[in-house]
Amino acid sequence: MKVSNPTSRFKLKIPSQFSVLDVGSGHNPHPRANVVTDKYIEDNYHRAGDIKVLKKQRFVQADGETLPFTDNEFDYVICCHVVEHVDHPAQFMDELSRVGKGGYLEAPSMIGEFMIPRGAHKWVLLEIDKKIVIVDKERLGMKSTHDFGDLFLDYLPRNSFGFKILQRTQQQIFTVNYEWKERIEYVVEPTDAELKKYFTQVWDKSMYEHIVPKRSLGKEYMAAMGATVDIFKNVFKSKVLSRFR
Q1: If 22 and its partner were Cys, which of 33, 111, 126, 191 is the partner (CB 3.0–4.6 Å)?
Q2: What's the predicted TM-score (pTM) here?
Q3: What is the CATH class of 2-213?
Q4: Residue 111 to residues 78, 107, 117, 236: CA-CA distances in angstroms?
């Protein structure tokens, strides 16, 4: 079941004694993971660079749909930007739930896929009513004719303070960020009309509010202030602390 919506994979509160698995770690493994896995060792089609394994991490080559681990072997499972690539998402989700007692899933949202399309992505996702809803991207007719990936992934993050705040305060526009325990609640190719409409109809105000809930002025202010502090911390680490390393 759903626990929360962390703003990013680096905002997870994982107890120090937990054993952690990163599924599909690729070129950017989570530093908290003890074990990292990837299906492809030499083929970088599904990632942005060569496989990387950090110090004290154990690498296991594995298909996420048939993980070579026992039930509940890990306290926490991290899986970022992988499910949109797999052949059988239901089997993949079940495997994450099987080997982990809880975890964190992150993937491009349907809105994010429209703005930053990737040919390697087979599925689009939304979180609706605390469930991950997964739909075949090709069936929706989504094509990569106009790709604004460089704008949203590079140009604006480098040059727009306002965009940085948006990324941190309304992350669900770009990604599905879903922390769970015991089992991931999901639906693949929904038949329920209330779920299907998000993928087949023009959204109205109520649908926007369902995916991007309104916040009070006070909560909006606190979110913006928290994002601002986080941005300055990151700038300090990258610009100042890096000089002393």
Answers
A1: 33
A2: 0.90
A3: alpha beta
A4: 22, 11, 10, 31
